[in-house]
TrEMBL record:
Key words, A-Z: Oxidoreductase
Pfam families from the UniProt entry: adh_short
Molecular functions per Gene Ontology: oxidoreductase activity
Protein name listed in UniProt: Oxidoreductase
SUPFAM superfamilies reported for this sequence: NAD(P)-binding Rossmann-fold domains
Keyword Oxidoreductase: yes
NCBIfam families the UniProt entry points to: PRK06197.1
Gene3D superfamilies: NAD(P)-binding Rossmann-like Domain
Length: 310
């Protein structure tokens, strides 16, 4: 648990008793910390994990750290829309959805449905999941959708003519575009929720530079040991902890009066520190770009937000 150093901390999370939360990618890193702290405050937490083995280990670990916590493991593969649809079937009410899971700077690959992996997992999987869970979110007064983006969204705006990066694939540009997509999705979802008069808030957050296994997964997948070692050194000497990186997401998820379409991150240079309002690129607030991405996402996933009249 974080200490009372300065600013907002896990001590300040309001009581979550009676609330149900889904956290994607909750078996490790930021997702695990988010799930643990929500459970510590009384929420019923569903850990949505691609690997059942790693998910079971996370549930066991969480139970040891927070005795008596109410947690459940559900398998979710955001790179497979059939898995997303199956996951979303059994929810009648949901208070909080944390779209946290993601991949970073992987070699070119495609999801089960043929989408470029980073765009498919980081954006399209969460777009479909949120749309399918929307009726359950609308049934819970004051529900929130928190989508985790990154300061790396500054690496690239989306190209509506090449959403799947088929023309020229550069791993970091593709990652930046997927994180831009997360922010554009939040922007457009917030606009549509407001137009429908829905009592659901769509917000975004990012962890700054936090030490997780996200940085090393790409190099490890390609056997690029030197790059993997470089990332390990960065995590060790320059990054803040996963506990600190999770704070902006927990703030966005639980603090009172978080504005719709807000972007919360670390207070010091978007890098580290207590949660604060974070700067974002102007292209993530472009209404027309948000509408185009939304239409393309509906077409690609086959998921429409009928509850909002779209």
């Amino acid at each position: 648990m974080s200490s009372r150093a300065s600013g907002w901390s896990t001590y300040d999370i309001p009581d979550q008793s009676g609330r149900t939360a889904v956290v994607t990618g909750a078996n490790s890193g930021l997702g695990y910390v988010i799930a643990r702290e929500l459970a510590r405050k009384g929420a019923r937490v569903v850990l949505a994990c691609r690997s059942e083995a790693r998910g079971r280990a996370a549930v066991e670990r969480l139970g040891g750290e927070v005795p008596g916590s109410d947690t459940e493991l559900r398998r979710l593969d955001l790179g497979d829309l059939a898995s997303v649809r199956e996951f979303a079937l059994s929810y009648e009410r949901l208070d909080l959805l944390v779209n946290n899971a993601g991949v970073m700077a992987l070699p070119y690959g495609t999801t089960a449905d043929g989408f470029e992996t980073q765009f498919g997992v980081n954006h399209l999987g969460h777009f479909a999941l949120t749309g399918l869970l929307l009726p359950a979110l609308l049934a819970a007064p004051g529900a929130r959708v928190v989508t985790v983006s990154s300061m790396a969204h500054l690496l690239g705006n989306i190209d509506p003519r090449d959403l799947n990066c088929e023309r020229a694939y550069r791993r970091w540009t593709a990652y930046g575009r997927s994180k831009t997509a997360n922010l554009l999705f939040t922007h457009e979802l917030a606009r549509r929720l407001a137009a429908a008069g829905a009592d659901v808030a769509a917000v975004a957050a990012h962890p700054g530079y936090a030490a997780t296994n996200l940085q090393t997964a790409g190099p490890r997948a390609e056997g690029r040991r030197r790059a993997e070692r470089f990332m390990e050194i960065g995590n060790r000497f320059f990054a803040q902890s996963a506990e600190a990186g999770a704070l902006p997401v927990l703030y966005a998820a639980t603090a009172p009066d978080v504005p719709p379409d807000s972007f919360t991150g670390p207070s010091f240079a978007m890098w580290r520190g207590a949660p604060a309002s974070s700067w974002r690129a102007p292209w993530t607030l472009d209404d027309r770009a948000g509408e185009r991405l939304w239409a393309a996402s509906e077409q690609l996933t086959g998921v429409s937000y009928e509850a909002l009249g779209s």
